[in-house]
Amino acid sequence: MAKRPTVQEWLEAHPPKCKRCENLLAVFNFENFNNGKINKLKDVDGEKIKGLYCHHCVDEAHKDLMESRFLEEYKGEKIYQKDDMYLPYWGCMYHFKTLEECRIRIDASDTVVLPWGGTASRNRVREVLGVE
Ligand SMILES: [Zn+2]
């Protein structure tokens, strides 16, 4: 039976490449993650995307990913879709099962719950308090 390779041996046999430009990436270690020489992408729901990117490609790859998830703009907010999840903004920790619920959430984001109960629109509260 063949001996299992060590992590080091495996990395030497399969040097990490950028998923987009296919250039070899810097040495695969924690420091190069920290200084941005090796990058991973996070999906709209915070899930890590498989594959690594060089610093030349990471912004483009992120843009492409955002475009692929973008569904529509609603009242100035971008709604994203991933599988059967609808998210009211990028990096959102929760999601909705329908686009309609997602729109309702965006409508409600302009509503403030008052300390004594009830709700008012954000603009009305700003007006009364005289704040920008
Ligand atoms: Zn690249």
What does this structure look like?
The protein is an alpha+beta fold. It has one domain. 32% of the residues lie in helices and 15% in strands. A three-stranded antiparallel sheet has the order 1-2-3. A two-stranded antiparallel sheet has the order 4-5. The longest helix has 12 residues, at 58-69. The model has no long low-confidence stretch (mean pLDDT 89). The structure holds zinc ion (ZN). Zinc ion binds at residues 18, 20-21, 23, 53-54, 56-57.
Topology readout:
Layout: H1 7-13, H2 30-34, H3 58-69, E1 70-74, E2 77-82, E3 85-87, H4 99-108, E4 111-113, E5 119-121, H5 122-129
Antiparallel strand pairs: 1-2, 2-3, 4-5
The chain binds zinc ion.
Oligomer: single chain
State the domain count: 1
Anisotropy-based shape:
elongated
Mean of all residue-level pLDDT scores: 89
Element-level helix/strand string: HHHEEEHEEH
Low-confidence spans: pLDDT under 50, at least 5 residues? none
Total helical segments: 5
Radius of gyration: 22 Å
* Associated small molecules: zinc ion
